[in-house]
Target: Coenzyme Q-binding protein COQ10 START domain-containing protein
Amino acid sequence: MHSSTSMWIQASPREVFALVSDLDRWERSLPHYRYVRILRRTHETTHAAMSARRGPVPVFWEAIQIVDHEALTIRFRHVRGITRGMEVLWSFAPERNGTLARVDHELDFRVPLLGGWLGRRIIAREFIEPIVKKTLTCFRELAESRVQAA
Model:
């Protein structure tokens, strides 16, 4: 299963990257997130337990975050929950005096016979994509309000 969601943000790639890469900020900045609990940090990675809402339905997972400040990318590898094994890539590219923020999800949903259908129709379309769109919208509003205030 592959899913890609993108949004243009009127702020520089570095400004958007700084907001998104700070997991400590997510719970305060994203009203649809129930929690983000940092379980472990090393110099290169952050292991977090995370939960968001898709409407009234809570979803939860654990992920390892790897931030690349040079490439302006953020990777998450889901290590617990129904999406265990999912690879997520956040990228931030300059576009039209702003940023094209893009989130790509890759998941080999290993359920016999129904895995591909469940991954695309239920997991991606009904959960991942709506949550990511709401997440990008919140970060866009935060980044653009900071630019306007400056």
User: Anything to note?
Assistant: The CA atoms of residues 67 and 131 lie 21 Å apart. DSSP finds three helices and seven strands in the chain.
